[in-house]
Amino acid sequence: MTHSFKDGKSEGRRTFLKTLSLALASGLIFGVKHLFASEAPLVRPPGPPTPPAPTPFQQPDPPYAKEIPSIPFDAPPGSWTLVVLPDTQNMSATVPPEYLRQIEWIVAHREKHQILFVAHEGDIVENCVVRAEWEHAQKAMRTLTQAGIPYSLLPGNHDLGDGKAIANSRTTLLNDYFTADDYRHSEAMGLFEQGKMENSWHEFTAPTGKYLLLALEYGPRNAVVDWANKIVAQKPDRKVIVVTHAHLYHDNTRYDWKKKGGSQEFNPYTNGIAQAGGVNDGEDLWNKLLKKKIETSFWSFAAMIFTTARAI
């Protein structure tokens, strides 16, 4: 999903572009057709069986799509774009070329769309203990690093646990495949815990002002929320963007365990992580962090249930 922003003389206005996945639909089809359509039907000769064909991810270099479709940028002059990547888990697991294809599109449109930052909303992979999925995600996201585009990551519920149950612990392979060096293109950045990528802050500057982006883990722990408040307090001159996982439900209400309990699927209180340092759902995060800064353009993005990416 891409979000474009434009401030006027009053409170400012924002233009939301179509979701990145929809904007790329024709491009993804083009890429797949380019890879497969020109191949002749496979005819097995007599004798030993033909070796298995390479997986789609074993693509040629340069990338298999010779052209990247151009998407018009119809936002007002002076606008800029924050790219928000919702759950990439299925692409990491089953169609990694499409993951890479989306990132290539971002790189190709960096200048045309004034793309200043890319925020991942978590659920980077589908199966948290399958290293091949993390390798696919690493290859895709490091295309941004190579292009010099700053980005953030955070673990969703599918990125956490020992593989026996979703998010039954805070264990993650995220730190095996990404390091703080991947964030070197942020103007400034910091981590909640040294050497651990689960929670981070980033600074960047846009035509509409100076921004602080907080990337917080799924169901952030109490200590993480306290840390986030301290970071915000240290940077009073910045507009704040918070990115997390499972903040809003599909009916546009916040996750609220105290009020709605198990009627909202995938609330972090239902996972094993609730026993490890506590968790905070959407309503908790709103009361403890977001509404304290609402007067200074506090934005929140999150993914989980269908189209739950929203701005507050």
Strand content: 15-25%
Unreliable spans: 6-60, 306-312
CATH topology, which one? Answer: Purple Acid Phosphatase, chain A, domain 2
* Gyration radius over CA: 20 Å
Following the backbone from N to C, one meets helices and strands in this order, namely EEHHEHHEHEHEEEHEHHE
Computed structural class: alpha/beta
Tell me the major beta sheet: 5 strands, mixed
Q: How many helical elements? A: 9
CATH C-level class: Alpha Beta
Overall morphology:
globular
Ordered list of secondary-structure elements with their pairings:
Blueprint: E1 2-6, E2 13-16, H1 20-23, H2 25-36, E3 80-85, H3 89-93, H4 96-108, E4 115-120, H5 131-147, E5 151-152, H6 174-177, E6 188-193, E7 196-206, E8 209-215, H7 222-234, E9 239-245, H8 257-260, H9 282-288, E10 299-303
Parallel strand pairs: 3-4, 4-5, 8-9, 9-10
Antiparallel strand pairs: 1-2, 1-3, 6-7, 7-8
Helix pairs in contact: 4-5
Care to describe what's here?
- Helix 4 (about 95-110) packs parallel to helix 5.
- The chain contains 9 helices and 10 strands.
- The relative contact order is 0.12.
- The chain is an alpha/beta fold and about 300 residues long.
- It has a single domain (about 1-35, about 55-305), classed as Purple Acid Phosphatase, chain A, domain 2, CATH 3.60.21.
Quick recap:
With 312 residues, the chain is of the alpha/beta class. The chain contains nine helices and ten strands. The chain is globular and about 45 Å long.
